[in-house]
Specification:
Layout: H1 3-8, H2 62-73, H3 75-101, H4 112-128, E1 131-134, E2 141-149, E3 152-163, E4 166-173, E5 181-183, H5 191-197
Antiparallel strand pairs: 1-2, 1-5, 2-3, 3-4
């Protein structure tokens, strides 16, 4: 194609300079430079060691942190919460045992020894969880026992407890009485036990046998 024809033909890319219109000295300089593809191996701002803040670290939940500080600052509150949890567990155990033992109420075996073994097994189970049977007559915590009784081959089921310092027996039926569980009362320390627990007075001279 001639130069005149090329100048008259429409150019969809606009008017581009041709080699004839560019000075000879500028031909080498005009060479178009295409953008090079980005180097994906180059470290980014988040990967450079000069910018340590850009790397996200482990995040601590503010709720867990505040709870931890609260527990360390208030050990009394933690102990109260633990005691509340223990009371809840003990209450659940007491209610479960009481519900299961209702199946034995009104039951009796043929001999005195068998009924004594039955009462002893019930009491051992209650002792494991520091429980007692509430006496339906007086309301005191009591121990289930079986005593020999005339006219009763299997003996009499009685509730053994201490009232005003005196050992008392209530009940006396031929079968297992109604069972309502209660907590085992704490024992009162005797004066003799307190005396034995007291340490010797400081500064007491030692006697030497020579």
């Amino acid at each position: 194609m001639s130069r005149a024809a090329s100048e008259k033909s429409p150019n969809p890319f606009g008017c581009l300079p041709s080699a004839s219109t560019i000075p000879a000295n500028d031909l080498a300089v005009w060479t178009p430079v295409l953008d090079a593809p980005p180097d994906r191996t180059a470290p980014t701002d988040r990967q450079t060691p000069e910018n340590p803040e850009s790397t996200p670290g482990p995040q601590i939940s503010p709720t867990a942190e505040s709870l931890r500080c609260q527990e360390l600052a208030e050990p009394g509150q933690m102990l109260k919460s633990l005691q509340w949890e223990l009371n809840r567990i003990q209450r659940t155990v007491r209610q479960t045992l009481q519900s299961k033992l209702q199946g034995l109420v009104g039951q009796s075996l043929s001999s005195l020894n068998e009924n004594r073994e039955l009462a002893s097994s019930i009491q051992k189970m209650l002792d494991t969880h520091s429980l007692r049977i509430r006496c339906p007559q007086c309301g005191h915590a009591s121990i289930l026992r079986v005593s020999p009784r005339k006219g009763m081959p299997g003996g009499a089921f009685v509730l053994d407890h201490t009232i005003d310092g005196k050992r008392t027996f209530h009940g006396g039926s031929s079968s297992v009485p109604p069972i309502q569980l209660t907590a085992k009362p704490e024992r009162k320390a005797t004066a003799a036990a307190k005396t034995q627990a007291q340490p010797a007075a400081a500064g007491t001279p030692e006697t030497k046998v020579g």
